[in-house]
TrEMBL record:
InterPro entries: GlpE_sulfurtransferase, Rhodanese-like_dom, Rhodanese-like_dom_sf. CDD domains: RHOD. Pfam families: Rhodanese (PF00581). Residues 14-101 form the Rhodanese domain. SMART domains: RHOD. PANTHER family: FAD-DEPENDENT OXIDOREDUCTASE, PYRIDINE NUCLEOTIDE-DISULPHIDE OXIDOREDUCTASE. This is Sulfurtransferase.
Amino acid sequence: MGVMTVPEVEAQAVPDGAFLLDVRENDEWRAGHAPTAVHIPLGELQVRAGEVPPDAPVYVICRSGGRSAHAAAWLNHVGRDAINVGGGMQAWGSAGLPMVSESGRDPFVA
């Protein structure tokens, strides 16, 4: 089997009300995430796939787009309609899209 291509959109193109799945690790999630995102770390996705809606497009995001591309490819393989968010949360933040942080700090400032 060749390299699987995954549909991809820019952060600004994620529709309002879409199911946004954040596959980053817990510390990254706490630092800052989209207000409506659902958090399932990549390592837990296979056992928690039942939490992903089977009948709606799923927009998958990580920090920069790599892990989410793997997650989207796997979700598509198991029958979901998954789209990677290119550039991840870095692009999301750069586009000025809404973000919430559990630490109260800017998520991308050390």
